[in-house]
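INFO batch 0412 | record 1 of 1 | parsing
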Amino acid sequence: MNTYSDLAGRRVARVGFGAMQLPGRDRDTAIAVLRRAVESGVNHIDTAHFYGPGEANALIREALSPYPDDLVLVSKVGAEHAPQTEIGLVLAQRPEQLRAGVEANLAQLGVERIPVINLRRTDIPPGVVAEGDQVVDLDDQLAELAALRDEGKIGAIGLSAVSAEKLKQALPVGIACVQNAHSVLDRGSEPVLDLCREHGIPWVPFFPLGSAFPGAPKVTDNPAVKRIADESGATPAQIGLAWELAHYENALLIPGTADPDHLAENIAAVDVELTPQAKSELDVLAA
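INFO prediction complete | emitting tokens
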């Protein structure tokens, strides 16, 4: 299995790191995990200014700045932190809000340019649904992000929580990656992945092992996944991640953790080779 792929013209390890779980954890432990990730070869870190809010970016800056030349920081806009809500987030979809989100990311990370900014849309679940002035035309959003790209504040544009129809609409602008919920048990975004395959767009599945949303299946609890893990000498989590890597050669993973042992386990998933029989069994689980 290839252990590297391309993201926005940069060579990155196929197993990266997601910073969403770091806010609220012990600060020294979070910083140590970030540094261990980079020392272990991770050079793709996914974050957002509304994680914390601001805490994830602050931890990344404290742990890693000045940043290694090969490190690709990917952040996200389209939402804001709102502690009065049940999930702590409200949408921020209007063009001026997207610009403000980019500026917040730049300031928090201490950089003049962010290699990739993902636009978090509301086209497909999970998450909050756009209403009122937060129902914004994609073309207007992309025009603002393209302007920020022209200004040199961002290097490339990605999409998150996007439908196949909206991805098709966005293609002329140039899309660096797509982040959608996807796992061996949740294949609802497969039409979007098919478009990514067609156009060679990197695929960055979030919740590859399931999520905390009600009713979301947990990959590590699945009997077939657990059996295949036992037979291969891997963990159920590694099997779920290895399946994503084998499912598409341009898949890039961003599992998050604040545990050094889990970090090592996640990174080692790239070395797990699924047998053809195991891959076939896993392919049909969602059916």
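INFO post-check: Strands lie at 4-7, 10-13, 17-18, 44-46, 72-77, 79-81, 89-91, 116-120, 157-160, 178-179.
INFO record closed
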